[in-house]
């Protein structure tokens, strides 16, 4: 049994571009080889899903967060016990 991989993305434009089979004016500069992503999504090997920043546990590595959100992500990553105030 091969289940599709779920790829969580917080960029709405990237999610739409991965699913949209037609070309967009702004995306026409993308090389042909990168259209492979759309083919993989259409084959249902990968499912690209929108995720809100509040639920994106990678956010502490990429942006500044409020203490409450940061601590919630630490817990999700299993790092809560390592965090010292």
UniProtKB/TrEMBL annotation:
Q: Which domain of life is it from?
A: Eukaryota
Instruction: Tell me the protein's name.
Output: Retrovirus-related pol polyprotein from transposon tnt 1-94
* Source organism of this protein record: Cucumis melo var. makuwa
């Amino acid at each position: 049994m091969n289940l599709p991989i779920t790829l969580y993305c917080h960029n709405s434009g990237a999610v739409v571009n991965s699913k949209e089979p037609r070309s967009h004016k702004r995306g026409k500069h993308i090389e042909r080889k990168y259209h492979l992503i759309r083919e993989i999504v259409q084959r249902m090997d990968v499912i690209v899903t929108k995720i809100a920043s509040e639920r994106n546990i990678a956010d502490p590595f990429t942006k500044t967060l409020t203490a409450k959100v940061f601590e919630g992500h630490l817990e999700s990553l299993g790092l809560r016990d390592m965090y010292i105030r």
